[in-house]
Amino acid sequence: MTKAPHPQIVTANHLLDGDVIYLTEALDWTRQITAAAVAHDALRAHTLLDEAQSRPHEAVGPYLAPVTLDPQGRAAPLHFRELYRTTGPTFLRDEAPHV
Amino acid sequence: MYDYTAFDAAFVRDRVAQFRDQVERRISGALTEDEFKPLRLMNGLYLQLHAYMLRVAIPYGTLNGAQMRQLAMIADRWDRGYGHFTTRQNIQFNWPKLRDVPDMLDALADVEMHAIQTSGNCIRNVTTDQFAGAAADEIADPRPVAELIRQWSTDHPEFTWLPRKFKIAITGSPHDRAVTRAHDIGLRMLRNAAGEEGFEVLVGGGLGRTPMLGKVVRDFLPRADLLPYLEAILQTYNLLGRRDNKYKARIKILVHETGIETLRAMIEDAFAENRRSFAPVDPALLERLEAAFAPPDFEPPAAVPQFLSPALRSFMDTNLHPHRLGHYASVTVSLKPVGGAPGDATSDQMRLLADLAETYAHDELRVSHEQNIILPHVPRRHLPSLFARLQAAGLATANVGLVSDIIACPGMDYCALATARSIPVAQRIARAFEDIDRQHDIGALKIKISGCINACGHHHVGHIGILGLEKAGVESYQITLGGDGTETAAIGERAGPGFSWDEIVPAVERLIGAYLDLRHGRAESFLEVYRRLGAAPFKAALYPEAAERRAHAG
């Protein structure tokens, strides 16, 4: 099996609230990237993606995102876009402190 | 203000009911996302990075106090207490839930608003001059024409699924504040030698990945011929516009590939045909539209307070625009406070603006494409009290047209298409030039920032344009120089290699430092210096190492 250059996770947006979500090993959705199922090879990655795509009533636009792993082996964002998806808007909003 | 007819009201309510049903069918699984997406886009609903986003139309940027107050209510009830005014004179709510959107649309319909034509490959909301109906330099108020185009274009069966989105802007003033040359169609009101009102028609403008300025396709189009002529342009585009490649699908590419002469001949042929078959616009409708946008009941001239505080005088220097009546002014309320996100307003601020419009300004508000709010009709006698209330609410930033009055798209802090962030770049530049006296010294300067090549932040027409891209896995910012969105429109020239996140603000500071060194006094603006000297001295300031290498080599 060809090894992917980086481990991958499946991410999407939640159908009802649009939140960033990740597919877990238990095939549930989580909002924590650290709880995402990590695919170390392409076959596993595509199995996870197929699972996500079979649940269009829960998730919109699932895709594979490459990740790095923290010391505990949990997923962490690799690309800055995925980083911002975990943090929400990055700037300090002086005008709307409740955000 | 345009008031809905029974037809308009029923149309908007019907559309909400349809969308409510579409949302339910999506949630139940009866509609796939592929089926639902074009339907939600037709109702202004996007899915962005972190959430859905609802883009609400503010046709020709005009609204009243009750409408602004309803936007505030929507922001509080279904969003996070703020909204973002956009470069197309609309407002975006960044955090709606899918199930709530039909209720939001119903709440909009309660005040004669909607989210139609804010997305999708249709004729989008017509934009215009934020000072329409008020400006001293105006030939005529363009909004009755904008509303006529709106009525013609909404749900037009032939033009609802165009090759790509289609944007029309119209100005009633020779001073173009509507960026007409960067639109698919730009309309400029003018009078011919016989004194008849008509339009110069521009076609094929647009920014995005292939920036182009619109070309004149008709020097003078009589006002009565507007709709059959617009229809001829759209028909020609709809037939010939490319559908095989979305990056080549805008009418600007058609103009470029076909040539304006050939295209003009085709449009004129279609126009001749249309003119025979096109029912003339009902004069009663035109009269009704003109009446809807009739000026308010202006008050007679009154004494203006003699003593004006230095802060108010500074505000008046930048935030006032000449009104057609000498004892009135149009007041721009800057949504660019230092540290704020350009174009954002909280619900409290929206309510205050509604109050101020009702109290001081004949209940009218405007949104500018530069992401500020305008009170178009303010009697000058009210300026001190108006200013005091703006000051108390932190809305009296005297920076309109200055270095910190930056256009910025939402960028990668919100937008799914973005390749880099733009709002925090604008904030950091504004902080670097926080001192308002320094800003006034630097003078007129338009910085425009886009977070991707689609150019929602109009960077190509910024005196200094900044485009955020990804380069080797990090954000990189490319600078363009000398752009101009007005009647002297120009596409900015790319300065050279991009700058990193840490380098971009110092690069802008070097540019402005170079301008201050080069100008012939304060009367000469950044753009004027650029036009006098070209890009070379600015490039030397941006890339001092390269300039030094060249000096050594020479």
Could you characterize what this model shows?
- Chain A: It comes from Rhabdonatronobacter sediminivivens.
- By secondary structure, chain A is an alpha+beta fold.
- Chain A has helices spanning 42-53, 80-87; strands spanning 3-14, 20-23, 29-30, 39-41, 59-69, 75-77.
- Chain A is built from 2 helices and 6 strands, in the order E-E-E-E-H-E-E-H.
- In chain A, strands 1, 2, 3, 4, 5 and 6 form a 6-stranded antiparallel beta sheet that branches.
- Chain A is globular and about 40 Å long.
- Chain B has 4 domains: 6-110, Alpha-Beta Complex (Sulfite Reductase Hemoprotein, domain 2), CATH 3.90.480; 135-285, Sulfite Reductase Hemoprotein, domain 1 (2-Layer Sandwich); 328-392, Alpha-Beta Plaits (2-Layer Sandwich), CATH 3.30.70; 407-553, Sulfite Reductase Hemoprotein, domain 1.
- Helices cover 38% and strands 17% of the residues of chain B.
- Chain B contains 18 helices and 21 strands.
- Chain B has helices at residues 6-28, 33-41, 65-78, 101-110, 143-153, 226-240, 251-258, 260-277, 283-292, 310-319, 347-360, 383-392, 423-432, 436-442, 501-518, 526-533, 536-542, 544-553, and strands at residues 45-47, 52-56, 62-63, 82-85, 91-93, 127-128, 168-171, 185-191, 197-203, 215-222, 320-322, 328-333, 344-346, 365-367, 373-379, 407-408, 447-450, 464-471, 474-481, 493-494, 499-500.
- In chain B, the strands form 4 sheets. In chain B, strands 16, 17, 18, 19, 20 and 21 form a 6-stranded mixed beta sheet that branches. In chain B, strands 1-2-5-4-13 form a 5-stranded antiparallel beta sheet.
- Chain B is globular, with a radius of gyration of 23 Å.
- The termini of chain B are far apart.
- Classes of the chains: A alpha+beta (99), B alpha+beta (554).
- Chain A binds chain B through residues 13, 15-20, 56-57, 60-61, 79-81, 84-85, 88-96, 98-99, and chain B through 26-29, 32-33, 47-52, 80-82, 95-99, 337, 339-341, 344-346, 349, 412-414, 421, 423-424, 427, 470, 473-475.
